[in-house]
Amino acid sequence: MKFFKRFVLSVIMLFLIFPYGFASAENNSNDKPVKQVVEENYHTVLKTWEKEGVKGVSDFETSISPSQFLKVNEKNLLPETESMGYDDRVFYWHNQESAAYEIDAPKDGLYELSFDYYPLNKEVVPIEGAIQVNGKYPFYESRRIVFPSEWKNDRDKFQKDRFGNDMIPKQITVPKWMHVSAEDASQLQSGPLKYRLKKGKNTIELANLSGEMLLGKVSVHSPIKLPTYNEYLENYKTQKQVSTVVTQEAEKNYTKNSSYIRPEAANDSSAFPKNTKNLLLNVLGGDSWDSSGQSVNWRVNVKKDGLYKLTFKVLQNKETGGPVFRKLLIDGEIPFSEVAPISFDFNKKWSNITLSNKKEKPYLFYLTKGQHEIGLEADASPVEPVIHTTNDIMREIEELTLEIRKLTGNQTDASRGWKISEFIPGIDKKLAGWADRLEKERDYLRNLDSSKEDSKDIVSLQMAIKKLRALSKKPNEIPSRLTELSEGSSSAAQMLGNILEELPKQPLQIDRFYVHGGDKDLPDAEAGFWEKLFDSVKKFFLSFFSDNYSAKETDDQTLEVWVNRPRQYVELLQNLSDQNFTPKTGIKVKYSIMPEEQKLILASAAHKQPDLALSISNWLPYELSIRGASVDLHQFDDFEAFSKQFSPGSFLPMMVGDKVYAMPETQDFFVQFYRRDILEALNIPVPDTWDDVISILPELQRYGMNYYTPMAGATGFKPFQATTPFIYQFHGDLYGKNGMSTAIGSEASLKGIQFMTDLNTIYSMPLQVPNFYNHFRYSTLPIGIANFTTYIQLKSAAPEIAGWWNISPQPGVKQKDGTVERWSPGSGQSAMIFKGTKDKEKSWKLLKWWLSEDTQTEFATSLQTMYGPEYMWNTSNIEAFKKLPWPEEDKKTILKQWEYLHEVPKNPGSYMIERELSNIWNRIVFDGVNTRSAVDDSVISINREISRKMEEFGYMKDGKMVKPYPIPTIEEVKSWAGDKDEK
Questions:
Q1: Alpha-carbon dihedral of residues 811, 813, 817, 818, nearest 10 degrees?
Q2: Pairing of strands 295-302, 558-563
Q3: Angle formed by the axes of helices 690-702 and 2-17, to 10°?
Q4: Using CA atoms, how far apart are residues 46 and 48, in angstroms rounded to an integer?
Q5: Beta bridge partners of 633
Q6: Can you list the alpha helix ranges (DSSP code H) found in 363-504?
Q7: 671-817+909-976 matches 558-668+827-898 in CATH topology
């Protein structure tokens, strides 16, 4: 009966997924392209308008004050006294509020929208909105409009750390009224977005997505047209060049629109200033200034009216070797079209680039006496056509791959013949057409680059073209050659994906720039040969005496801490400790970058261990503790009170009985990510339980989409984080009584394992997904369960969908009382004290300071504002987590999921349980083995290995238990905080 039931369900699901069969791709009319679910992108819509003859309206401008907004909440309409100096009433725009206003357009045409605003955010959470015209989003980019804040260093002079190196200063916002036009959030368009308004009344609505600000007047005006250089110069034909040189160091006297554009230390003889011994912050930018739209404005004082040249000393060593682009701004405005943008070619050496025309004749800029702002804005708009075409072709490749899989039943046997060209007529022309389009983009990229050698982007395009042409000549072989088309690291789709990732990046490092006139000679960009040689020799000898964050023994009065993190984390931690911890306690601390965390076991065996270790994997303290190398933290009187600040389930892998050998430092989370725009378009509700997930699968799969679980991301071996949620959610367990055997053979555990495998065998969830992040961006997997890593990727590297995806607690199993149990692991990093520490009490005091609410909050905020949104610190301290500069709704969701955090407790044989759970899944899904049979076989192997390990560590002898091995539970941890009755 069970087999028959599964067979019937499989047939039903196949019918729901492929209602028109496999006979012809033309019959799959219901398989709408994914991109039609939401609006077309701006590039496509603008081309359509141009074909229809719709043009920009000239000589029109009107402004609307907040008092004229439609249907506003009166409490958000602030009086002039609360307007921050705006001299008019303003609208407090926050918390998903909307501001709507009406425009009487003189005629049908294209207009631009702009806004006066005062940012209220003092954190890195962006201020974002969405614009609808007459109740609709005219194009997808209108779903996310960004209102940037202005940032600066909190001090002009750099402080020194304990080693004499410059420290990156803290970042603060500049409180001021600003003006911005509605622009593409990805900053891939060359100018502001253009909106089509019909003649007569039009309603424009600005909805809040995140952040808060004061909104002043909103404007609708004709598209702004920049003058040419000749037109610009005509206005200053009576002015003369000024024969002087003003030198501006790039790392000083500037503001920026991203907190994490930062000064860097170029340990280079050619950078100024230089120091062969210490690290000086002497250049600006590089990888921290590589996103389109990021801008820097330097304050420059000019002594005399006149015409000046601009020369920038830059290092442009983009990894792919292509050019990068910048817009020039003078006092916030682009002076003429030829400097929007400027190209900086790849060059591994420092070079002086004077802004010039194609004939290398320098441009002249008119500046009056006094202070001016000279700005550069990263600009990826020149490569937007290539990105657009590549994106389109990638989507079409995915659609074609899906059609082929449906036709072949996902069978890729190379020995089997297919006549794909009969089922998909014109497939050869389609592939050749893609190659033709990509060839045009390749030639276009070559025209942008004046370098002699092709960049890696061009090489990748060429290789993709070659593969597509080869496949177009033998289309019937495509089913067995999908690795060349769309699957695997060397496929055409993967190469195009790499281009989409790298091409928009615009890194540029600036040492200084010159505002100069006449024929004044400028200093050489590169240091001379002898100067470089002398500096190299000096650095070589100094390297023997440098101890910057290296793992070396300390004196008896200084705690030695090894940190398993990159340099920027350790620098910040050392500075915080020197400023806050040591002055208050008198305890000296030296932090060192850990060479490799596995060496802790060797260091402990050789009695060369540090006092503490931070940011280590949460399994490592257990391995050290059973070998007698860790301090039991439960012995400290205030441990239980301090533990209240952390999730109870996070302690389980660091415990042996009631002893605790480490503290959780960071904490992961597995939540449900979903594309709000896709689900709204398909009228699909956000699932709350696994039954809900199953109910939405037919509709998703009908559109060529699916649901993702971490099981699909674990390509071979399935770790605990992928398998145990199903066991715990169905009230199963991994361990039997006294920890001497496994409990995965119990009825509850079997039920969880059965459901885990049914998701693939019956409900057709994907078996393998190498990169959920990319599939989520391109809408093929618009919903699924993922962790903190995916959250960072989407927050920092998916601007095109920002504001239109969200998270919710992961689905769980509904209980009889109506609650939903969502148990899931959340492995992060941990921190521990070694038994060989100089002073246990001092080490415990340091550990408490580091993991305290105040320290974790300051560390997380400083890290993100200085280094960017990708440097999110997922602290394990729940009270500190509530104060992080993350969106409030996201924090609420994560905290709700953390209520069900259930890490896997350890016993000496737990690795075998993890391995066998993975084997069970493989045997059931791929080999069709009965669930009970697969589990029973694994139970034998697991119990045998647990007995062997228990003998090794003295818990068993000759097959009999000597002493029990109690498995720690969440209830036991909760009892420390006095929650004994809590379930």
A1: 30
A2: unpaired
A3: 40
A4: 5
A5: none
A6: 384-408, 420-423, 427-448, 456-473, 482-485, 492-502
A7: yes
DSSP, res 304: S
82 Cβ contact list (under 8 Å, min separation 6): 90
Q: Give the whole-number percent of the chain exceeding pLDDT 90.
A: 73
**Considering Cα of 232, then 235, then 238, then 239, what sign does the dihedral take?**
negative
CATH topology of domain 42-221: Jelly Rolls (2.60.120)
Mean residue pLDDT across the chain: 90
How many H-runs (helices) and E-runs (strands) does the chain carry? 29, 40
> Mean per-residue pLDDT for 244-256?
96
On whether the CB atoms of residues 156 and 180 are closer than 8 A, the answer is: no
Can you tell me which residue has the tokens 């050869």? 428
Q: In degrees to the nearest 10, what's the CA dihedral of 733, 737, 740, 742?
A: -20
Pair 185, 144: CB distance under 8 Å? yes
Contact between 910 and 825 under an 8 Å Cβ cutoff? The reply is no
- 3-state DSSP of 734-771: CECHHHCCECCCCHHHHHHHHHHHHHHHCCCCCCCCCC
Tell me the pLDDT tens digit for each residue of 724-752. 999 999 999 999 988 899 999 999 999 99
Q: How confident is the model at residue 37 (pLDDT cuts 50, 70, 90)?
A: low
Contacts of 608 (CB under 8 A, 6+ apart): 553
pLDDT single digits (tens) 214-225:
999 999 999 999
Neighbours of 556 (CB within 10 A): 6
Dist. CA 172–CA 187, nearest whole Å: 24
Tell me the three state secondary structure of residue 196: strand
pTM summary value: 0.84
Residue with tokens 């308004």: 197
Indicate if the pLDDT at residue 798 is higher than 90.
no
Instruction: Tell which CATH classification among 2.120.10.80, 3.40.50.300, 3.40.190.10, 3.20.20.370 matches the domain 671-817+909-976.
Output: 3.40.190.10
Residue 27 in this model has a pLDDT that exceeds 50: no
Dig out the tokens for 823 from the structure.
Answer: 């148990």
| Residue 412 vs residue 796, higher pLDDT | 796
Contacts of 744 by beta carbon, 8 Å cutoff, 6+ apart: 727, 732, 733, 734, 750, 753, 913, 916, 917, 920, 935, 938, 939, 942
**Range in 159-173, 629-643, 967-981 the model is least confident about:** 967-981
- Please provide the DSSP assignment of 138-178 as one string: SSGGGG-EEEPPPEEES-SSPPB-TTS-B-PPPEEE----E
pLDDT bracket for residue 981 (50, 70, 90): very low
Say what the pLDDT of residue 542 is: 67
Is residue 5 scored above 70 in pLDDT?
A: no
> What is the Cα–Cα distance from 124 to 923, expressed in whole angstroms?
47
Superfamily of domain covering 558-668+827-898? Periplasmic binding protein-like II (3.40.190.10)
pLDDT value of position 802? 79
For 602, the 3-state DSSP assignment is helix
Query: 101 with 202: CB under 8 angstroms?
Result: no
Domain extents in the chain? 42-221, 229-380+505-524, 384-502, 558-668+827-898, 671-817+909-976
Can you tell me the distance from the alpha carbon of 864 to that of 123, in angstroms, rounded to the nearest whole number? Answer: 9
Across residues 485-509, what is the average pLDDT? 88
Rounded Cα gap, residues 459 and 381, in angstroms: 21
The CATH code of domain 229-380+505-524 reads 2.60.120.260
How far apart are the C-alpha atoms of 897 and 878, rounded to whole Å?
A: 12
310, 515 contact by CB (below 8 A): yes
User: Which phi-psi region, left, alpha or beta, contains residue 659 (left: φ > 0; alpha: ψ -120 to 50)?
Assistant: beta
